[in-house]
User: Fold these one by one.
Assistant:
Number 1:
Amino acid sequence: MFFSLSFTTVCIFTFLTAFLIVCISTPVIIRVARLKSLLDEPGGRKLHNESIPTLGGIAIFSGTLISFSLFRDYLGLNDVRFMIPAILCLFLIGLKDDILIISPWTKLLGQITVAGLIVFFGDLRITSLYGVLGFTAIDLFPSILFSVLTVVVIINAFNLIDGINGLAGGIGLISASAFATWFLLTNNIGLALLALSLAGSLLAFLIFNLVKPKIFMGEIGPMITGLILSICAIQFIELNKHMESVGNFDYWIRASPVVAIAFLFLPLFDLLRVFIIRIYIGKSPLVADTNHIHHTLIRSGFSHLQSSLLLYLVQIFFMLLAIYFRDLRSSHLLPILLLGAMLFVFTASWYEKRYCLKC
């Protein structure tokens, strides 16, 4: 190499490169999408009143993958095997859905295939749950099934929460920043670069999506965000297990599975909540509706911006709560998070019944 950069400088450049790629490419994508009429039209359960381009995920995909690949190769790092092919496959699935529309079951099958690629062939697995639901060590076959399920659930959690301006992008940015911070503190540079690439891309995307949306994520953006964050979450859990086994307790987190859940808490809890509601009323869990928490806030009179900012604060609160109680057992911390989430939902539902403007 002709010159050498410190890890800190590489991390900063990774974030900035992803940010700049999205900033530069998004206006071009907007123009092309409008020329080709690749727009999300208002109506039905849609919460916007004008036609908006839907290919913002292309910019997020490009910024994240180019920035990460560039600086990972510069440092000569090894990372999760088959991760880049998995991201490319999911990108193609999302692109087809954005342009031609595919059925929910077909999309789910594609997500399972992508998850299997990195879990089975890339050996990205959750091998212990630290006592959550009574499970500690997990045998190989259940570990593969549970890890595939984890990846698919997180992908869909971000896909389903992408319902108002800036929500999926902002929550993804918060989650990626949290993972990046821990990976940096524990000197896991490759994973830190992955999370920082995503964070830089999402921050730039919010410029075009949060206040007055000029473009939406489409299907590509939330699915890519969910896939990368699922990789970060599984690695976070497994690295904490390794740190415990070798006696390295610097930044070790005892309740790592539940803290990983907390880093993704709002999307995961909202997915669980709407799936329970849909099954209870006899609907398919994959059929879209207006039972998400952001719909509750919109019906209560909050604007898109106000709803997203409020839910950012909720996500940060649960992250900080989990970090504060990180030395508890996982089986003790999880009920605390669920109790807090149910209290928030109860408060939001009460507020909606009292102040609902669109009931």
Number 2:
Amino acid sequence: MKDDTKAPQKPIAAKAVAGLITDSLKAAGLPPDDAVKCAELILEADLIGADAHGVFRLPQYVTRLKLGSTNPRPSIKVNRTAPATALVDGDNGMGHLVVARAAETAIEMARECGVAWVGCRMSGHAGAAGVYAALPLRADMIGIYSAVANANHMPLAGGAEPLLGTNPLAIAIPAGEEPPLVLDIATSIVSYGTIKNHKLQNRPLQGDWMIDPKTGAAVTDPQKSAEALLLPMAGYKGAGLALMLGLLGGTLNGALFGRDCVDFNLEPGKVTNTGQFVIALDPRKFLKLEEFKSEVDRHIRSLRDSRPLPGHDAVRLPGEQRAKRRATRLRDGLILPPELIAQLDKLAAELNVKPLRER
């Protein structure tokens, strides 16, 4: 019998992936316009290379909608608490919709005030952080995003308990002729989505990613990741950053943090009350926009031309590969692992929607 898993994989058109996401979310109860909006934001994660935060997450989103732990028809409310601050209550809707509303609000307010900070409560998992930091770029603004992750996998510095999420930080800065600079990092050494992707494909973990909380030994078996601790980036610095971002994204907004967090992986039927925040900053309030973007371009080119280490072809700038990858994947399609395609085919059958191969 032919082993199809060994055959070269065919790229799947981005439009087909978006169609599957849209149809699946509609079948799970989302109104058509909301399903299209979520599909756009989910697909964006795949296009920019955040593969563990795109269509990979679709079965989990659908499960939560079917269990009622995510509200398919939320009444999202925005409370402008001051000229430059607002709080969005997501009514337990899809996190993508809630954070997109927060970004839209922040952009609108920043046009008036120069800067705006918008927090979210009663939100949910929203995918890749960089997607939302980049939304203000459309208005030629700087974007900053952070969140309390939907599960605790990381200890405090020197700790043996999972009390911190992988609480990400993303910053996007517009440029002129060059691609914008977009930094998107988890405060853990890798995102937990990466761990889940390795588990799905049964690929070994790197030795510095996770440890056994009882022995401190490295855990490289992805099937044992649920009992392991995910290490913070840069040791105590990453743990400290996760702590502070968690308080700003969670506690400040009336969302959950620390021991109160609900693990949406282990408890799919529970409401997570996820917290996030988006900051929009208008560079026009500091200097002329074209002057700022021109200066960013100049610095990008200067940094790109700096001398690389032996064995490296070039230095890396945040966002550069992202822009190239997005263009390539839009043109050529996405390569999805066979294990993920099998999951998506199963989901399509359960929801009675067209599978990827028929799109």
